[in-house]
């Protein structure tokens, strides 16, 4: 069920597994140590406690070792995040408008849809705008999310890697039908996208010829 | 443990029998009392009333989520319930839970004082607490219905919804002042009212944690007061501050909100860490390991905890510099918490451990708080945060810290100190069973949320996609087990405090000052202050050999 479908998915999952793996080891250590102490030094087995006040070496060790590990976690998170901010200049431009409680997608030629269609492998930059309250644009399978505001145009980008249909959810609470504010992104073969784009634009009376320009 | 032993010295009437005012008995002798112990008890009962309501709301939320679509309530009611659940749990249970109840009762005793330094102000704080709570309740009953904004009142939704946001804002505002005044009272008490022999490093660690907490209460809470007042002004007068339609900035609101509400998380967890630091040495019969490291880590948490608020906003579109800095400091603030956990574990090493209920709750605390901390590390990593922000992973994370941590800390404190406060003991066997049920139910409730959160289940959702249902069902079943455990636990405590066998002065063998005075304590606590020179965790009477490694 761990659907991964964008250029970010594997990296985010790797950071997760790195931190979760380390955490799991330490957590098991904590639990095992605690249970061992509770049994080994129970009042029955060990009626006479030993007085130990502190141990500077230990304190230094369990301050510096976590510090080093934490900095590594921070670093991997930061590196992955920088990729999310490095938007390619040739990305296909989509304007996303959020309102209570639906999404609208606008293509460069003015074509508007309620579902997003994107060719596989193409970089897509979505410019996010809200006409009312705060929302958040979230595609779980792509591991991306960004808040959507009325007074600023946040942007987000992805490069899809697998053909298919993926959910778009609203992740910032926006009132009554917040949980129904779902849409979907269809990742299509380039040819399929081209023909979809051409026919849908023609139906809407728009210039379809721009396809080649926007996708280079 | 001597359950039925009579107090070792001559018995004086306790604070439960002696009034501080002209009313000898009855409700007025309580609600007009300035005795810190009576005020602590009053907080205890009012807090428990609010807690019961919020647990019931939580139960309804979970029941609704057992299946997609409508199950028992409509979407609007659901939104109002999770808002009230949050407001009540945070402002009326977790924040006042330890400082206002057990801090009020035991802080003066632990430092050898007769009372807090401003007893009247203390009573006033309780009144503000109750009035604030009543405003929250009123918002439910007034036409329009209670607020449906979530406890964080994010603008612009909170400016536009037609529900009773204003009473809820006023409630949070008043409760904030109650919290500030309690903090002020505690800081001053700790500085000015310590017994002359009670030097800083002889203070029990619970007092240290309350001291760190009080500073956050005093410094951070005014910000939320002003911010919520601004939202009220925006709502009523239409002044554009946060609402973009009026020329305001919603992200500014989020900054101001979290500048308080993140430190508030430490207001909630620090006192629980203090409780853990009290309980482990007593039941291990050993001096606490690394006293100074635990004490200073509280201050470090209070300090660094004030600098990480924007990690709640990594998806808001802040500058990369801000993202970098806030992510980094988030990792820094994890260090002192890790230090505490390791010191607690080391305190058990070579101790002489008795698994009484308070210690069992502490064991749950350590594991659950660690899980909360580890998942916090995941949320602190920028790229991962982008995916997990506003999913049920975050819900599980903060419930692991706030409930699995602080909540269990409060339960531990109840099992540890209630016998001292009421002079009676609860049934230990039942308490142990209740602990087991509560711990199992708790983990069954929140563990599935981590998984479905990672799979993309957003939070504050009334309805959800069918693939998430197995996790929701598991979680809801967990909530039933948890509530059964809570009912057993509280019933056992209630019966114990009313009818349980009388307990001795020191049923657990503690060495801090509250265990060296009469049970229940007398008015003004001490006939004479016991010898303090030994320090709070001196168990030398049990020890034969001494090891001081340096």
Number of helices of chain B: 15
Instruction: Using the coordinates shown, work out and report the CATH topology of chain B.
Output: Cytochrome C Oxidase, Chain A
* Largest interface: pair, residues per side: A-B, 83 and 97 residues
Q: Tally of extended strands of chain B?
A: 1
Taking the alpha carbons of the first and last residues of chain A, their distance comes to 34 Å
By CATH, the architecture of the largest domain in chain A is named Sandwich
Tell me the structural class of chain A.
alpha+beta
Instruction: Give the ordered list of helices and strands of chain A.
Output: HEHEEEEEEEEEEHH
Low-pLDDT stretches of chain A are none
Under CATH at level 1, the class of chain B stands as Mainly Alpha
Instruction: Quote the beta fraction of chain A.
Output: 25-35%
Specify the biggest β-sheet of chain A. Answer: 5 strands, mixed
- How is the CATH topology of the largest domain in chain A named? Immunoglobulin-like
End-to-end separation of chain B:
34 Å
Largest sheet of chain B: none
| Coarse morphology of chain B | globular
CATH homologous superfamily of chain B - what is it?
Cytochrome c oxidase-like, subunit I domain
CATH H-level superfamily of the largest domain in chain A? Cupredoxins -  blue copper proteins
Portion of residues within helices of chain B: 55-70%
The proportion of strand residues of chain B reads under 5%
